[in-house]
Amino acid sequence: MQIDSRWTDNPAKAVAFIKKDMKIAASYRLQFAFQFVQIFFSVTVIYFIGKMLGTSTGASLLKGCNTDYFSFALVGLAVNSYLKAGLVAITNDIRQTMNQGTLEAMCATPIGYNWLLLCSSLWQFVFETVRVGFHFLLAIAVFGMRLRDANWAGAILCLILTVPIFMMLGIISCSILIIVKQGDPINWIFSSLSALLAGTMFPVGVLPPWLQTIAMCLPLTHSLEAMRRCLLAGAGIGQVWMNICALLVFIVVLIPLTMAITGICMKAAKKQGAFSTY
Amino acid sequence: MAVVIEIRDVTKYFTVERPLYKRLGLPFGAAGKICALDKISFSVKSGEILGISGSNGAGKTTLLRTIADLLKPETGDISILGRPLAAGSGRLRSEIEYVSSDERSFFWRLTGRENLEFFGQLYGLSAKESRNRTEQILGKFRFEEKAGQLFRDYSAGMRKKVAVMRALLHCPRIILLDEVTNSLDLESAKIVKTLVREYVSNQKCRAAIWSTHRFEEIAEICDKVLVIEDGTVRFHGVPGDYQRGLICK
Description:
The structure holds two protein chains of two kinds. By secondary structure, chain A is mainly α. Chain A has helices at 11-27, 29-54, 69-100, 102-107, 113-141, 152-180, 185-197, 209-215, 219-232, 241-272. In chain A, helix 6 packs antiparallel against helix 9. The radius of gyration of chain A is 20 Å and the shape is globular. By secondary structure, chain B is of the alpha/beta class. Chain A binds chain B through residues 1-4, 6, 10, 12-13, 15-16, 19-20, 23-24, 27-28, 100-102, 104-113, 267, 270-273, 275-276, and chain B through 14-15, 62, 65, 68-72, 86-94, 96-98, 100, 102, 104-110, 114, 118-119, 121-124, 126-127.
């Protein structure tokens, strides 16, 4: 049995998806506003934790990172939000479209299923980019964060390599979700392990060696390390090439894996008629 | 007349999972199977409207969803305009529009107009074409004023109207209508029937399948009827013949 698994389609459809999702997100005005207000609170909490650690021995653990805790955790929070966009926000969106019945209506149009999942994820990444920008704006303007030495080109390269990885993980997660409906294992494994091991809020160096080895198998670990070194220490591409290579390996591995898993899941969904059930 | 839809020996099973407490103590995989469609064969020619009739659970919706490429049959072939649907390019889906019997196929936080424009683009129209076609179709249904309201604020009948408008938006060759006049008032139902009839007759290589449990509707609008019960074909022919057969019985 063949399924329509095109990865490319009319780019105008992607724009239509972003517009549609933006309108829907903005229609929940209070939630939309709170998502920005919440940033103020999380940045403030990190600032005060950083202030507390600044005078304690805990800060010495960051000496190797050549930064203060506030900047360290803020970059962690920002990059982690892309992982959340890929794994949590997109799967929530797809679950919602299944519940609403709009997923089946979209599948009935001549859009490739993979393109449909990809387009469904775009708004979340656009929105997350705006939110991340707002994080940094607040941190610089209100809390005095310094990014004078930042290597922006390196940071953008890291982001360009990171987003497709989280996007593919999100697509795998959504494909599985269409079949299992609730409790997607990919989402659970990557979210939980990344939160614990990838070094979002504390350096990977504080973990026991065997956990550090597992941490190296997570894309977020490499993304965070490269991003921090570029943004906070002004490291050049040559200094983060190991992380960049690791991210490239994740991309190379994930492309065929995503295609295979979505193919299997979509075939099963079409057999079961699973697009409209929940 | 050219054959627009051809269905040959289509069979579809659904697996019915037993609740966990019933599965305990039974061998692995003790799930039942329901035969939703059993070797269904028929064809629809250009300019024809085929009515599908049958009681609840007869397999009408499953048949339409299979033709709409939303369900994969276990066996059998479906050809649309002479091309096999199983080829999987997905592009054939632009020739088919399925109007579902439920109202859950729209974004409730968008207006009727925004919904139509979005789906128009998914069907391959450019943003401008989609806007223009949406305005044309809203005019035909005299729905321009209400098109700016959120979809969630529409009545059941208005939602159904928007579903029919979406079906005609991108000029598909085949329209599959599932219980489409349910919750429509008499006047709106009449408009829909007239529009579908005109739409199918106006150009070559267009056809429609009209599924309903109301036989009088089929007698009024359809050229042929397929009566299915428990997934099998009980009658295929002219609606009048079926009615005469019932009277004779």
